[in-house]
Amino acid sequence: MKDSYALITGASSGIGLEIANSLAKRGFNLILTARNEIKLKELSKVISDKHKIKVDFICSDLSKVESPQIIYNFCTSNNYQIDCLVNNAGYGIPTAFHETSMEDEEDFIRVLGIAVIALSKVFLPNMISNGYGRIMIVSSVAAFAPPSTIQALYGPIKTFMNRFSDALNTNYNHKGITSTAVCPGFTVTNFHQSSGVQNEMDKVPGFMKFSAKRIAEEAVIATLNGKNLCVPTKTYRFLVFLLKILPSSALALIESNVAPGRYDKK
Length: 266
Ligand SMILES: NC(=O)c1ccc[n+]([C@@H]2O[C@H](COP(=O)([O-])OP(=O)(O)OC[C@H]3O[C@@H](n4cnc5c(N)ncnc54)[C@H](OP(=O)(O)O)[C@@H]3O)[C@@H](O)[C@H]2O)c1
Known about the structure:
CATH superfamily: NAD(P)-binding Rossmann-like Domain
Order of helices and strands: EHEHEHEHEHEEHHEHEHH
CATH class: Alpha Beta
Structural class: alpha/beta
Largest sheet: 7 strands, parallel
Bound molecules: NADP nicotinamide-adenine-dinucleotide phosphate
Radius of gyration: 18 Å
Number of domains: 1
Number of strands: 9
Distance between the termini: 60 Å
Shape: globular
Strand content: 15-25%
Low-confidence stretches: none
Number of helices: 10
Oligomer: single chain
């Protein structure tokens, strides 16, 4: 008999790492994946010792086309049954769209979009035959916000992921599989440093920043309960409500004051 596991992409830091801790606390065995082998090795040991669960890891760069299949083959050859797939890996490109190379944009779309689709595609058949599966897609409040003048493709790819998550629900809910699009607002992680927008993040008021632990906990509860959408924290649920009802001219004005990191330094 196969052991049941949760697979988490981008598990080496931030929201992904806290999702791993939250699932471990609930007794899930884990497969962690990211590019940083040293961190994954260390974290696997720490998490398995602390929660007395099985943890394995596989290093993988999701900008490479073959990575999702390699991850799937690793799980199959080790007899790991993935009942929960967490698509979390991501980053931002801080450079203006006209200054980036097409290769940079393609890598970005692959990590935040195509890899999510490819991983869902390879793991779904086993979930269908088991009659159970939980998929989480870590999207963003940016999916609902007006376009940013930096990170031009970030909002659009997150909107696409929300729609993809909806499509998974439409097609597979009746087979016991649910997909949860998790849309966090500003979360304190390595994201802003590694995406070159830490100065802009520093200007965001404190009441709009939340810890990765808090976001992960809400995300895991919603996913295990089979919710379609999870916007963690009341603050961001209210913001998303405003984003849906206010005209975009009013939103741009509000956002340029409270979230200057989303706008170019003109
Ligand atoms: N922080 C926020 O304010 C915020 C808000 C809304 C949504 N989000 C979303 O939350 C998700 C997690 O971000 P985070 O804030 O936790 O950032 P983070 O701390 O920088 O974590 C990003 C994770 O993605 C992995 N990753 C990056 N590029 C990768 C690649 N090419 N292949 C495989 N793994 C890769 C990183 O690991 P390695 O470097 O080891 O590969 C790391 O584990 C992202 O999808 C992001 O868009 C973040």
